[in-house]
Design brief:
Elements lengths: L7 E8 L5 E3 L2 H7 L6 E7 L3 E6 H14 L1 H4 L1 H13 L1 E5 L5 E3 L2 H7 L4 E8 L1 E5 L1 H9 L3 H8 L3
Antiparallel strand pairs: 1-7, 2-6, 3-4, 3-5, 4-8, 7-8
């Protein structure tokens, strides 16, 4: 399946307040959650960061793709995956100031405290603790990878 880019790009260094609220940059918010009080799916991933998806993409693409794989993976394993994914996800409504609320347990698991790196990554948004993001990016020769992809 080929990914279609939603046009989410850019980096923003943001603050997370003590209530777990994170501001979504306006340039990202207009694509991720264009309507007033739209919902965003917040998902904790094994690499130790968060992914944000629009409600529609989460429902129509992510969830549907899992359900479509029941035959290949097996119903019991699919339901285990659904439970794990559901346990580690949260729907958050974008407030009037363009913020979402991230549960404290998710922030703790990612190491995000007061600062967060927000990256638009085509069809999703990644949210990282700054030091984890820097370490993750250093794990690979990014110039070589970009050349292999054929971008430059």
């Amino acid at each position: 399946m080929m990914l279609k880019s939603a046009g989410l790009t850019g980096r923003s260094d943001n603050k997370v307040d003590t209530k777990g609220r994170l501001s979504i940059p306006a340039s990202i918010r207009k694509i991720l959650a264009p309507g007033e009080y739209d919902e965003v799916a917040v998902v904790l991933v094994p690499a130790g960061h968060l992914l944000l998806f629009s409600r529609d993409y989460w429902n129509d693409t992510i969830q549907q793709s899992i359900m479509d794989k029941q035959e290949a993976i097996g119903k019991e394993n699919v339901w285990r995956a659904i439970h794990l994914l559901s346990e580690n996800s949260h729907m958050s409504t974008v407030d009037s100031q363009g913020r979402i609320t991230i549960p404290h347990r998710m922030l703790e698991k990612t190491g995000i405290t007061a600062d967060a790196v927000v990256i638009g990554a085509f069809d999703r948004v990644s949210v990282w603790a700054p030091e984890k993001y820097a370490s993750w990016m250093e794990e690979v020769n990014i110039d070589s990878t970009i050349a292999d992809v054929g971008i430059f």
